[in-house]
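I hope you will forgive my troubling you with a question about protein structure. I should value your view on which stretches of the chain appear to form regular backbone elements. Here, with my thanks, is the record as I have it:
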Amino acid sequence: MSDLRSSVLVTAAELAAAATDGSALVILDISDDLETAPLERPVIPGAIAVSLAADISGPATKAGGRRPLPDPAMLQENLRRWGIDADSRVVVYDNASGSQAGRAWWTLRWAGHENTRLLDGGLAAWSAAGHDTADQPVHATGGGTFSVTTGGMPVIDADEAADIARNGALLDARGKTAYEGDTDKPATGHIPGAICAGAKDALGPDGSFKSTEDLHAMYAAIGADGTQPVGVYCGSGNAASFELVGMYAAGIEAPLYVGSWSAWSADPERPVAQGPERG
């Protein structure tokens, strides 16, 4: 794996090796909302169960969207509770589309923990490689010393997202159906000028990310080629974070509109485009 790609992703084989080489490893199993959907599936041995809603995001608001940035002090308390230090190697994964783990990867990087990687292919890749799973996550014992320093990943607000949509490439990571919206539902559709760029398009048939070369070519073809401003959004910032995993693996940096469509559509003054055209 190239140095660029390995700074973002870890393979199942690499994670299995790291689990036995004495590394200061912390594995986080990410679910969207454990409070409403308790974990009832196997996990990677040694993983700590984390709720994206309660542990890594702030309370939902109209202005901030469904998954706003967390309070730094709260996030720091959680990271320390999970035993994370500045030199810990953190690996995040999920058993869904990857968007939950992608948002966790992005948030930890935003909080200043650069040594955070996403498991390429998630739990499915781990199981497909023949590695054992555990019935229950481990209990976090605390003792971490990591200090949160925000700003490690760039963000944009609604006005900045609208400007990029007009003058650059604002990528909508939700997929075709959500992008086009429903003419019978006025609050559906996309930010005018945004480009439909479903996050799942970055994956190959096996659910892992495409090659670095293929990712770079795919994003360059839709305007993320370094010649103009680029930003990413989705419904609540999760799929967009997963999109950014693929972009960063290809050497393309871009900001996240954290509030995304959940914040944009909550403001009736903001315009909405529907259909397949950018608008």
